[in-house]
Amino acid sequence: MKVSLKRMLAYLGLRSAYSSSSQVFVSISVISAMPRSRLSRHATKVIVRVSIWTCVVLVLLFLVTYTLLLAFVDRQMHQVPLDVPYKKVRLLNRLYGKQSLRKLPAGNNPFHPERLLAHRKAIWNSSVYYSKNDVLPSCSQPFILFLITSSPQHGDRRMSIRRTWCNSINATASVKQPWTCIFLVGISKSAEMLAQILKEKELYGDILLGSYVDSYVNLTLKVVHGLDWSATHCPSSYVVKTDDDCFVNVRLLYEFLLRYNVKTSALYAGSVIQDNAKLKVIRGRDKKWAVGFQEYPEEYYPPYASGFGYIMSADVVKLLASESRFIVPFPNEDAYVGVLISRLGISPVSSSRFVLSPSGLNVCNYLFVFIVHHVQEADQLALLQKTVESRTVCNHSAITTWS
């Protein structure tokens, strides 16, 4: 706007030195500064509310992430092999000097399996399935211990095995006690059958009788019972779990483990199932191998050796017996053992020397196979004779690997 100098001076209370006739004007540009607008109450409330909810969401995300990380770390820690500290840690102190943790007593060794498992609470213990006041099988610390699952009514199968491949007369004299066979049997609901089992048990002394009813559902109890008994009462270099409808090429297996096997610890070998289609957990009450979510919540089992025959070193047997206390048993026995093996961080050794049927095998194949499944008791002797014949008619060098 344009204002005359005279009027402006008059407004300020000053007199002009210029004549009134002067027509001089001064142009003044006035910029009006508007005051900064303030937020309304509603806008302020909205901003505060959004800020609070943002903080809440961030806290919740942190808690969820932290919980998932804890669960993941806890799960991974369970899979750490309990023997690792023995092999890789050395102590140097005034009390013990320089020596391996393996030689330290459990009370002073923080990495001893008993100390490592002490912080966990056992869910169950297979020792409750020992028959009270029962006389346990005798054990003379064999090189190989065979744990053979059997049923009360399979007396003919047990007798056939005693007379054929389990007879230690077929062994060489390299080891004082080359192998021992123990049959794992549950009790029968039939009083007559139970009486026969007790008589057979007393006669041969090679039956480990559990207090559980003998059934497929209780097969896992039977196997864990055998592993626990082996770890506690019958130390051996190797343990072989097999069934009473299997033939074991026992002399070949014995010589292989004695001379050629280089994996003398952390050994879990057999016909390993690795196909996801076969490892998928079966659900549903009416199916034979069905397992409930509460028993095993995962969608797939870890790779495991088929239950008709697998071989374990002594350290693995002890670790399995200990770890089983923290996992509820479910009916799929071989998969259950595979879950324990996975938690212990042990890698299965897959071998083609375990076959599902004798069909198609020629005489010379018995210089290769260790265990054959689906064998009738009447055929045990014939297969044993084939193993003897293969040593004379087949001109093959010894196979020194698992494959």
From TrEMBL:
Report the subcellular localization: Golgi apparatus membrane
Record protein name field: Hexosyltransferase
A GO molecular-function descriptor: N-acetyl-beta-D-glucosaminide beta-(1,3)-galactosyltransferase activity
Q: How does it sit in the membrane?
A: Single-pass type II membrane protein
In the record, biological process GO terms are: protein O-linked glycosylation
InterPro entries registered for this protein in UniProt: Glyco_trans_31
- Keywords per UniProt: Glycoprotein, Glycosyltransferase, Golgi apparatus, Membrane, Signal-anchor, Transferase, Transmembrane, Transmembrane helix
